Amino acid sequence: MYIFFSLQFTILKLLNLISATYLCFVLFAGVPILLAGSGSTRCSGRVEVYHNNIWGTVCDDGWGLNDAQVVCRQLNCGSALQALQMAYFGPGTGQIWLDDVVCSGSESSLTDCVTHNCGHNNNAGVICVPIRLAGSGSTRCSGRVEIYHNNSWGTVCDDGWDLNDAEVVCRELNCGSALQALPSTYFGAGTGQIWLDNVTCSGNESSLTECQHRAFGSHNCVHGQDAGVICSGSPIRLAGPESTRCSGRVEVYHNNIWGTVCDDRWDLNDAQVVCRQLKCGPALQALKSAHFSAGTGQIWLDEVTCSGNENFLTGCQFSGFGAHNCKHSQDAGVICSGKIYFWSSTRCQIQQIKLLCTTTENRANELKQI
After folding, report:
1. pTM score > 0.85 for this model?
2. Which member of 14, 76, 135, 322 lies 3.0 to 4.6 Å from 187 by CB, making a disulfide possible if both were Cys?
């Protein structure tokens, strides 16, 4: 059973150690947990655990979305949007209770995960959102739209569903712009509750539930009308000395700033997604250690984990925009094959075009088709 306490209960502040403008915590199976720190809300903040009558923080070593997912579930806050590191919500004080947390993502409590050699500058945080994309063929940024309400997930009916509505979903999930607003269970039919119907957004709202809609659970739909979206993800480019259109240091555009990608867990599956997004053919190499030189400024992505089938890099799992424990000496790069795909109505051919130019004016340029 969940018991929520407001932090206007000064007894909690007397118990500990934390100055924050807004905190709340949950007792779940006897294990209290709260989100605290500068800018925290009920569903976003620095993760803290209550043990031996003392509140303490969680170290960010290995902290990822699976761990954040457990926190969000324990707090009844929907899905994990970001797993934040490096004391994003400010450093805590006093005890550090957990380090090297490893969750599968299905646990009911953070202390059910496998679990101190760090300081408060490494305190872990989370941002949770009451929305997710699910269904057959779904990715982090494409799928059937589902809303978390009254402790359960439910779908959205496609009555009046359009690109403005999809735009709000994509923004809420940090997934770039909306490419398609899909009706008629494009990602398969959901089950259980249908939470929203007749959704009407201007496109500027920060959350889908801020849009006009019928009352939660009031609808005239069936799951054959579940709404879906496909979002663009964030734009990417390849940069650095000796880079080409299809090889270079991977950079992502977010919040109007270009930033790099850390090479933690960087592999050919991740590179494959980059090459696909840039229409550069299959990936040949996934390069680490700033192979195309170190970038500058922001490091946007870390712990990127792709299956290789995603259409854009930010559709893969990662720690959260700006959440990292890297330096630019770990900037990731790729080399793509640069193959060009020719499509026709009857068959598909894969060919590579190579253009060889000479410095002699009178010699014709050679176009060699392989």
Report:
1. no
2. 135
Range picked from 23-27, 31-35, 72-76 for highest mean pLDDT: 72-76
Q: Which fold has domain 236-340?
A: Mac-2 Binding Protein (3.10.250)
The CA distance from 189 to 49, in Å, is 38
Closest by alpha carbon to 228, among 289, 285, 178? Answer: 178
Q: Which class is domain 4-129?
A: alpha beta
Model confidence over 67-79: pLDDT tens digits?
999 999 999 899 8
Instruction: Report which of 219, 77, 45, 82 is spatially closest to residue 151, judged by C-alpha positions.
Output: 77
Among candidate residues 113, 114, 126, the one with its CA nearest the CA of residue 78: 126
Report, at the CATH architecture level, how domain 131-231 is classified: Roll (3.10)
Q: In Å, how far from its chain's centre is CA 81? A: 6
Name the β-bridge partners of 172.
none
> In the chain, where are the structural domains located?
4-129, 131-231, 236-340
Q: CA 62 to CA 101: how far, in whole Å?
A: 7
Helix (H, G, I), strand (E, B) or coil at 23: coil
